[in-house]
Specification:
Length: 137
């Protein structure tokens, strides 16, 4: 793993680190997601500072180049994140469906109660003022 690749790896990790911190300050990212990304950044920095880890893992897995191992690691990491986000989106979509059905049922129930109240309403008796208004028209 060359020096240029290590520098690019550290710079990329720093960019992600500052991006995550910025999103945290603006409260646009949950703490659980930020921990995931910060661990990812830390692992990339460790791999760049101690390239022996990448050499060992690439030899262990039979990968020819440590840089190929790093790419595989990043792809696997992002694949896992994509899968967890897909599960989370599915759960949120189901919650949206349930909530919209509950709202529709409550609105329907309120509409039916209004109709029932109007159907059983007793008409108001005509008052003297109403009777004189009707006679003049």
């Amino acid at each position: 793993m060359g020096g240029y690749f290590r520098i690019v790896l550290i710079l990329g990790a720093l960019v992600v680190f500052f991006f995550v911190l910025r999103k945290l300050k603006k409260t646009e990212m949950s703490i659980a997601n930020s921990v995931f990304w910060l661990l990812f950044v830390a692992s990339l920095v460790i791999a760049a500072v101690f390239p022996q880890i990448a050499f060992f893992c690439s030899d262990l897995l039979g990968i020819e180049s440590p840089s190929n191992f790093i790419f595989l690691y990043v792809i696997a990491f992002l694949f896992i994140k994509c899968f967890t986000l897909t599960v989370e989106v599915s759960k949120l979509g189901e919650k949206v469906n349930v909530l919209s059905q509950e709202i529709a049922l409550k609105e329907n129930r309120a509409l039916m109660e209004d109709r029932a109240a109007k159907a059983h309403a007793v008409p108001e008796p005509a008052t003297c003022a109403n009777a004189t208004d009707e006679q003049t028209n």
